[in-house]
Amino acid sequence: MNGAGRAAFVPGGAVAPTETPVATARGTGRVAALTFDDGPDPRQTGRLLDVLADLGVTATFCVVGDNVRAPGGAELLRRTVAEGHALANHSTDFADLGAATAAEAEALLRANLAIIREALGDPYAPVPWFRAPNGSLGRTGPVAVRLGMQPLGLGRVIHDWDGCDDRSVTTLAHRLRTAITPGAVVLAHDGGGDRGTTVDAVALVVAEKLDAGYRFTLPRGGAGEQR
């Protein structure tokens, strides 16, 4: 405990984070990093985890605190970590942080980190990346770095959220094929709506890319990577 009677803050775990958002995958050659935003969501997160397990692929899940606390959210989060996937802080809800003060952003990032670790039952669980809702970094980049998290850029986005003109499996598969290029960080969604067509596209295209010699790694700058 510290002098105020509270446990000392445990940083997210990123190694030497920088304020510059990361949008490149670890490794060289045919490597790419899959990231999934807005979960966990009982509608599709479990099925996505099934697909990734069948393919032998790990990804980074950018999780929302309100969804972790929703029915089934904590169980899905624990499964995500148990199956070897990495975590990013995606704030407590879907509110845009572009206009937030540094103090407001810090309160939300700390709160979401606490929610994640409480659900996992591990006060030291690594959450080494941060992705701002809607990609609106505002003042959040330096805050994330101070809290031990590497900001993630949007990377290669497949536009699979509600309101996009076409979210059919055929269209999302085409976008995913185009997005998965050497060194890319790819952004898709497992929450924020029913992402069934996203999961179908991932199952199809990731299998194709594996056959073509791709490896799926993590974004640069998180835990376990020396700089």
What is the secondary structure topology, with strand pairs?
Layout: E1 31-39, H1 45-55, E2 60-63, H2 65-69, H3 73-82, E3 86-89, H4 102-120, E4 129-130, H5 140-146, E5 150-151, E6 156-157, H6 169-179, E7 184-189, H7 196-211, E8 215-217
Strand and helix order: EHEHHEHEHEEHEHE
The CATH class is: Alpha Beta
Report on the biggest sheet.
8 strands, parallel
N-to-C span: 32 Å
Query: For the residues shown, what is the average pLDDT?
Result: 95
The domain tally reads: 1
Query: Uncertain regions: pLDDT < 50 for 5+ in a row?
Result: none
Say what the CATH topology is. TIM Barrel
State the share of residues found in helices, binned by percent. Answer: 25-40%
Q: How many beta-strand elements? A: 8
> How big a fraction of the residues is strand?
5-15%
Count of separate DSSP helical elements: 7
Backbone shape: globular
CATH architecture: Alpha-Beta Barrel
Overall structural class, as computed from helix and strand content, comes to alpha/beta
What is the CA-atom radius of gyration, in angstroms?
17 Å
Query: What name goes with the CATH superfamily?
Result: Glycoside hydrolase/deacetylase
Pfam family, one: Polysacc_deac_1
Protein name: Endo-1,4-beta-xylanase
Keywords: Carbohydrate metabolism, Glycosidase, Hydrolase, Polysaccharide degradation, Xylan degradation
Domain NodB homology: 30-217
How does this model look, in words?
Residues 30-217 form the NodB homology domain. InterPro entries: Glyco_hydro/deAcase_b/a-brl, NODB_dom, Polysacc_deacetylase_ArnD. One of its GO terms (molecular function) is endo-1,4-beta-xylanase activity. This is Endo-1,4-beta-xylanase. Keywords: Carbohydrate metabolism, Glycosidase, Hydrolase, Polysaccharide degradation, Xylan degradation. Helix content is 35%, strand content 14%. It has helices spanning 45-55, 65-69, 73-82, 102-120, 140-146, 169-179, 196-211; strands spanning 31-39, 60-63, 86-89, 129-130, 150-151, 156-157, 184-189, 215-217. Helix 4 (102-120) links the parallel strand 3 (86-89) and strand 4. Helix 1 runs parallel beside helix 7 (196-211), helix 4 crosses helix 5 and helix 6 (169-179) crosses helix 7 (196-211). The chain is globular and about 50 Å long. Strands 1, 2, 3, 4, 5, 6, 7 and 8 form an 8-stranded parallel beta sheet that branches. It has one domain: TIM Barrel (Alpha-Beta Barrel). The protein is of the alpha/beta class and 227 residues long.
